TrEMBL record:
Pfam families linked to this entry: ELFV_dehydrog, ELFV_dehydrog_N
KW Cytoplasm (keyword) present: no
Positions bound to NAD(+): T209, N240
Positions of the catalytic residues: K126 (proton donor)
Keywords: NAD, Nucleotide-binding, Oxidoreductase
PROSITE patterns: GLFV_DEHYDROGENASE
Protein name in UniProt: Glutamate dehydrogenase
Taxonomic lineage: Bacteria, Pseudomonadati, Ignavibacteriota, Ignavibacteria, Ignavibacteriales
Length: 453
């Protein structure tokens, strides 16, 4: 480990104990940036990275609400306003029982680099709550969202901080949050993205993260003169990102074999076709059911329940060409990475944020496969949120084709940035270095321009 990485990690661990995901995210970036610090002493002198690991602002608040049984419930709400050097804070809200300060700091930290890579003027932020929307009625979700916004509205705004969705926060939740914000502020503005199409949302925003991850994969394959046509793909998750990842893979002629949720996964040897994907979308978005029901509907598919006693995830242990982890952080560990490589997988495009452990990433980099880190591969979601903000400011809507073309171009440019930067810093083909360094430079230079703030 270089002296710089050692020093930074000591600092971060001492100041932020018990936040292992945040340490992990900073560590990955620090390794890449040690290459930059050697060439650019000004970044060390200005203590840019030391400043970037300290959120500009952390807001933490009580969210009381009353459930359908008339019982009082108390959750915790957060917003991490990480970095606003290149634009208003921008990043999703996550509602999941695992949410805590460390997880949101890791997500907010990564968001800063990701947003910079999109080339749009967006700073980085992230927020959410340990509230679990699973199993709650629509009325309960609404009451929770209203209570959450009763505090959050003071801290956000179209030119200050613009939240969006993430795990557990989809169109329904954004609707309730937006309604309450509008009521409190008496303003109809683009304060949230992922809005409904009738009230300021952008076409392609729901699809954007999944589509973008597949566009990024296509760009990586193109460097080897290949396409997705006929490729066997493993996809995890069955939420927003997973669904539109499958849709785009199918459009480009690939074959999808798996999907999952937190209870288990399905393997469909015949492939998940359009009709089966429609079933999944209805199951997950309307009926809010479990992926197990896929195997009850389509008898050829095999359902395997999650086994917490296993030290690997069997979803990643099937013969395939490409993998699209699209569920959550650390879903691919070292053993999973070995299984993927053993089964012939040579492309990973991360729809999820930080789905691979550092051990898994090292194995992929050593094997020199096409490994697209989330900061780059899943940036299409926030990029299209940026396009939603632009349309809101103009009070105008672009067509589906216009937004999709812009998304495709942004993904192409992010890919090119990663390739060029990795090459410039002497590590050709290393998309991790490309994304980390490519995202860093713009933010770092803006911070220097703006003085010590
Ligand atoms: P989502 O619609 O809520 O879906 C999440 C999926 O992942 C569900 O199938 C969920 O299963 C599964 N999952 C969540 N936590 C899990 C866990 N601890 N173990 C196993 N499975 C788990 O969320 P999403 O928007 O698709 O987000 C998925 C990933 O993409 C996250 O890492 C998110 O940060 C990242 N991402 C999202 C966007 C976006 O625009 N939405 C943009 C960039 C990155 P259950 O239903 O059983 O929980």
């Amino acid at each position: 480990m270089s002296e710089f990485v050692n020093y930074l990690m000591n600092l971060v661990k001492t100041k932020n104990p018990n936040e292992p995901e945040f340490h992990q995210a900073v560590y990955e970036v620090a390794i890449s940036l040690s290459l930059v610090m050697e060439r650019h002493p000004e970044y060390r002198k200005e203590k840019i990275l030391e400043r970037m690991v300290e959120p500009e602002r952390v807001i933490m608040f009580r969210v009381p609400w009353v459930d359908d049984q008339d019982e009082v419930q108390i959750n915790r709400g957060f917003r991490i306003e990480m970095n606003s050097a290149i634009g208003p804070y921008k990043g999703g809200l996550r509602f999941h029982p695992s949410v805590n300060l460390g997880i949101l700091k890791f997500l907010a930290f990564e968001q800063v680099f990701k947003n910079s890579l999109t080339s749009l003027p967006m700073g980085g932020g992230k927020g959410g709550s340990d509230f679990d929307p699973k199993g709650k009625s629509d009325a309960e979700v609404m009451r929770f969202c209203q209570s959450f916004m009763n505090e959050l509205y003071r801290h956000i705004g179209p030119n200050t901080d613009v939240p969006a969705g993430d795990i557990g926060v989809g169109g329904r939740e954004i609707g309730y949050l937006f309604g309450q914000y509008k009521r409190l502020k008496n303003e109809f503005t683009g304060v949230l993205t992922g809005k409904g199409l009738n009230w300021g949302g952008s076409l392609i925003r729901p699809e954007a993260t999944g589509y973008g991850s597949v566009y990024f994969a296509s760009e990586m394959l193109a460097t080897r003169g290949e396409t997705l046509e006929g490729k066997k793909c493993l996809v995890s998750g069955s939420g927003n990102v997973a669904q539109y990842t499958v849709e785009k893979i199918l459009e480009l002629g690939g074959k999808v074999l798996t999907l999952s949720d937190s209870n288990g996964y399905i393997y469909d040897e015949e492939g998940i076709d359009r009709e089966k994907l429609n079933f999944v979308m209805d199951l997950k978005n309307n009926r809010r059911g479990r992926i197990k029901e896929y195997a009850e509907e389509f008898k050829n598919a095999v359902y395997t329940p999650a086994d917490p006693g296993l030290d690997y995830n069997p979803l990643w242990n099937h013969k395939a060409d490409c993998a699209f982890p699209s569920a959550t952080q650390n879903e691919i560990n070292g053993k999973d990475a070995q299984n993927l490589l053993k089964n012939g997988v040579y492309l990973i495009s991360e729809g999820a944020n930080m789905p691979c452990t550092p051990e898994a990433i090292d194995l992929f980099l050593d094997a020199k496969i096409l490994y697209g880190p989330g900061k780059a591969a899943n940036a299409g979601g926030v990029a299209t949120s940026g396009l939603e903000m632009a349309q809101n400011s103009m009070r105008y809507s672009w067509t589906r084709e216009e937004v999709d073309n812009r998304l495709r171009l942004i993904m192409k440019n992010i890919h090119k940035t990663c390739v060029d930067v990795a090459e410039k810093y002497g590590t050709p083909g290393n998309y991790v270095n490309g994304a980390n360094i490519g995202g860093f430079i713009k933010v770092a230079d803006a911070m220097i321009d703006q003085g010590i703030v």
